[in-house]
Amino acid sequence: MTGQPDELDHLLDRMLRGVLLPDEATRLRELVGHLVAAQCTDQLAVCNAHHLPPVAGCPYPRCRAARATGRAATA
Length: 75
Fold this sequence. Notes:
Layout: H1 7-17, H2 22-49, H3 64-69
């Protein structure tokens, strides 16, 4: 994420107090978008790498073994 580590905290604090300026709101949306994209990329990497080769009975709903047996998460 670009920006200072506490920039997000500062903007969230201003939003919660109801004093967020329009430029700050734009920046907050940008920062949150970066976080969401990073989280999705990370989850996809975990999902794709989990259990190579698949392990039967794995409780992780998105693992390759779950997909092979029809237990894969639908979300």
